[in-house]
Automatic annotation (TrEMBL):
Organism: Jiangella mangrovi
InterPro entries: Galactose-bd-like_sf (IPR008979)
SUPFAM superfamilies: Galactose-binding domain-like (SSF49785)
Name of the protein described by the UniProt record: F5/8 type C domain-containing protein
């Protein structure tokens, strides 16, 4: 299984949103738009437009690695094509993959642009409306932030902000908290579902997931590649408590797939996996990290 060219990067969280992306690094939201997405200077066009969204409303799970996406449709209703600029605003703490974009708007059909929406893990459940405007045309998209799952079976890591010491190309740190245990690299309209480091043959490597709020943690499941030759072999599980980082479990000699670590519960606000060795492969691969209470 070839691993595509790696890249060295600073610790970060990358939210893989299909063809567009939002990068949240060191707590700062940066909007990253595809080529041709920036608005040109000059006055806004006066064309009459029809703005639509599909879906028309969004349910968003709390967590910076849990984006929801709608397709914004822009169509000229003047009978002639236009190049309007659309601006999007949202109440705090809602994050957007883009706050402005310029698009070709034909008269025959709506031109579609993806808009990705995220909220931090501790965002209260409720309604948060998005407002879109282009000239005199407006559109409101209702956004419902859902309740976080609770109870002993709730995975506390699901969708939460995750960073890595380095990230290999076509993978993402957010892939380890997406609920998908497979190793899938990024492709056309296909988000990556796993993480691999970007420093081949160099250990240790680290993955860190910040919980939505401090919680008692007594079990951590780590999923690595299903084939032993690509799997992680040795790693430590650490919790961040009021006293700092504490190693609560060590896994040694693992072959493939998932490994469960249980330990006396501690109240923690983050979980870190420190990868120490593989079964010979140059890259550390983790496909999922799950965190549970006692």
């Amino acid at each position: 299984m070839p691993h595509l060219q790696q890249s060295r990067r600073r610790p970060r969280t990358v939210l893989a949103f299909g063809v567009s992306a939002t990068v949240i690094a060191f707590g700062v939201l940066a909007v990253v738009a595809p080529r041709g997405d920036s608005a040109p200077a000059g006055p806004e066009p006066s064309a009459s437009l029809e703005l639509t969204a599909g879906p028309e409303r969004l349910d968003v799970a709390p967590g910076l690695c849990s984006p929801s996406t709608t397709q914004i449709g822009v169509r000229s209703v003047d009978g002639a094509a236009a190049y309007p600029t659309v601006r999007v605003t949202a109440p705090e703490p809602v994050g957007l993959s883009r706050t402005t974009f310029t698009t070709y708007a034909p008269a025959e059909y709506p031109a579609l642009t993806p808009l990705d929406v995220v909220v931090p893990g501790d965002t209260p459940a409720g309604e948060y409306d998005l407002a879109l405007r282009s000239g005199a045309s407006t559109l409101t998209i209702p956004v419902t932030v859902t309740e976080r799952p609770s109870g002993p079976d709730a995975n506390l890591a699901r969708g939460q902000e995750t960073t890595a010491s380095s990230v290999g190309n076509l993978t993402t740190a957010c892939g380890v908290v997406d609920g998908n245990h497979t190793y899938t690299l990024e492709g056309f309209n296909r988000p990556p579902t796993a993480w691999a480091d970007g420093s081949p043959g160099v250990f240790p490597d680290q993955l860190e997931t910040r919980l939505a709020r401090p919680a008692a943690v007594g079990r951590v499941d780590v999923h690595t590649h299903a084939e032993a030759r690509f799997a992680l072999r040795d790693w430590d599980v650490e919790l961040h408590t009021e006293a700092g980082w504490t190693t609560v479990a060590s896994v040694r000699g693992h072959t493939a797939g998932a490994a469960t670590s249980t330990f006396p519960s501690l109240r923690a606000d983050a979980v870190r996996i420190t990868a120490l060795a593989t079964n010979g492969y140059a890259y550390a691969i983790v496909t999922e990290v799950e965190v549970y209470g006692p």
